[in-house]
Automatic annotation (TrEMBL):
Pfam families: HATPase_c, HisKA, PAS_8
Lineage: Bacteria, Bacillati, Actinomycetota, Actinomycetes, Micromonosporales
UniProt feature coiled coil, ranges: 372-399
Name assigned to this protein: Sensor-like histidine kinase SenX3
Protein source organism: Winogradskya humida
Subcellular location: Cell membrane; Membrane
Amino acid sequence: MQIAAQDVGRLSRLLAGCAGLTVAALGTAGLLSTPADDREPLLSSPGAALPAAGLALCLLAPAGAGRVRRGVAYVLAVLAAAVGVAALSRHPAAGVAIVLSGLALAGLDVQLRRRPGDPARYRIADPLLVGASIITLVALVPRMFAPTFPDGRGPGSLMTPLHAGALLTLAVGALLARPEAGPLRTAAVAGPGVKVRRALPAVVAVPVIAALVSALAVRTGISRPAAAISTGAILAALAVLALVGFLVRSLEGADRKQRTLVAELHEQRDFADTLLQSMNEAVMVLDANYRVIDVNRRWRELTGHPGPTDPPALPPSGTGDWLVRRADGTDVLVLATMATIPDATGAPRGYVATYVDITDRKRAEDELSSRAAELTVSNERLQESNTRLEAALAFKNDLTSMLTHDMAQPISSIASLSELLHADWADLPDDIRLELVAKIDKNTNRLIKMTNDLQLLFRLDTGSVTARRTPVPLLEVVTSVTSELRAAGDVEVTVGEELSALADRQHVWHVVRNLLGNALAYGEAPVEVRAERQGECVVLIVEDAGPGIPEELVPGLFDRFMRGSGLGLFIVRHLVEANGGSVRYERTEPHGACLVTTWEAASV
């Protein structure tokens, strides 16, 4: 049935478009067929309005016409009405009919409600089209009875048959263009009075049909004019009586159906009210203007109001948290849902708002969120503690490994040499004694250096090392370290006297001491120390001619407790970075190791 209705709608709009084209063609043909001597001014001729009106109907007929298309059609319809106004002085009947038809086309899609909230709609185009049709038919009646007048002369024609036919075609096409509205709509859409409205065109048409029958009888000579008119009047009266009887019967049937529907509506309303009051959610029903129509028992309990009252604020469409103001001025948190009740056309007919008190649930959620936040903080703190414990454990293991390896050897050597001196002092010659004491002194200095490095390591690990940066002459520091290490013959120094680094002097000394000590201990002579100025930085390089550092050790070269370098390079990296510099390792060709430190240059 739905497919059949759609097909009927398409056919109706197609016929409306064809009617529009026909009207446009008739108007154009009438203008072209009029002799040049008899032509009226274009803007005051009724025929000039027909092409515009026909094109307007043709543009409005298809379903879903775009804005531009409708706009052009409305302009053409208003233009046709304006031409009709201009033609009123010479052709009153045709001018009025054209004005009504043009206004009907301009308001073809305008619908009005009888009263607010009423779903039934009425088109303003319907009475305009009916008025234009009646004027056209009435204007044709004197022409039908022209042979009855003396000498065969009829009265002056009020409207030409071409204009009358075009206007009637235009009215029928306008009705067909919107089959879902107006007199052509179905009973389900039109309501209980559809039979009465459908009968009204028949009531208008019966006298016209009777007049047409009488005129046909007169023109064909079947009957004399008086008899023909009397017969037509009698037929019209009988037809009107039959229509009145049909209408009365239809109204009685409609009244019975209405009483039945009213009873069903009362029953449905009682059921709906019972259902509304029995719901556990607070429900508020509003009309299309957001005025409260009804509320249920739970709404009164939630808000504290004894009856329906307009709320200070309504929730937005959809579902979400909302605050409802109670009668005592307090607010209650609810889960609000605002739903639209559409009418048959999809427009909002009313709204339903439901409220669910979520105060307890929100409180539980807040407590749960608070506990979860506290648990998250505790987990983060525990993770940090675990990280620190793991780092401390790794530090302890590395320190234990270094103490048992690096410090055990000099301590063991000192103990052995001291025991030998103590046991064989009287038998040992002076040169042997001096050699043994020198070895003890060397191992003691090694232990002292390790102890100082450990103290510095602990300070670096706790972050208590700060740099007091001042201009430091690099040549002076390198010379001091070389003298202390007694390596003047093995070290080539190429450092300009003017080169100074902006750093902590003690930190620079430790860096040079560790780099030069590692080069002398693990590399081969000659060891070269050189420095140069590069922009705003000073680069200090320590390079030896040894085998270099194995590739597998380079990624972790500056880590803590690096095998083969003790704490030296780890301390070097932290001290250089504490002064805003950097350190890196470079391999030299064909062999050797090169450690490059970069410092901020001191201003001259």
